Amino acid sequence: MKIKRVSEVLKKRVYTDSGELFGEIEEANLHENRIDGWRIRVIGGMSSLISGARGVHIISLKLLLTFS
């Protein structure tokens, strides 16, 4: 995925590697003019997977999730 603006990524859906919907990107954390991490709003039954948290700070999407 090639992006030019961070605002293009907000509200994108995030999926697990098995194709299940995990949530939507809520925020991008910036550090020294680069994206340092993502805040993802968890949707539906996936919250039980992460102990009921409503937002998750993800540092590496490559290892955990894919998004479209």
Rg, Cα atoms, Å: 12 Å
Number of helices: 1
Helical residues, percent: under 10%
> Structural class, from secondary structure content?
mainly beta
Question: Judging from the principal axes of the Cα atoms, what is the shape?
Answer: elongated
Strand order, main sheet: write it out: 4-3-2-1-5
Helices and strands in order, then pairings?
Blueprint: E1 13-16, E2 21-31, E3 34-42, E4 55-58, H1 61-64, E5 65-67
Antiparallel strand pairs: 1-2, 1-5, 2-3, 3-4
Question: Your description of this structure?
Answer:
There is one protein chain. The chain is mainly beta and 68 residues long. The protein has one domain (6-67). It is 6% helix and 46% strand. It has one helix and five strands; from the N terminus they run E-E-E-E-H-E. The protein has a five-stranded antiparallel β-sheet. A hairpin with a 4-residue loop joins strand 1 (13-16) and strand 2 (21-31).
Keywords:
about 70 residues, mainly beta, elongated, 5-stranded antiparallel β-sheet, 1 helix, disordered C terminus
Summarize, please:
The chain contains one helix and five strands; from the N terminus they run ββββαβ. The chain is mainly β and 68 residues long.
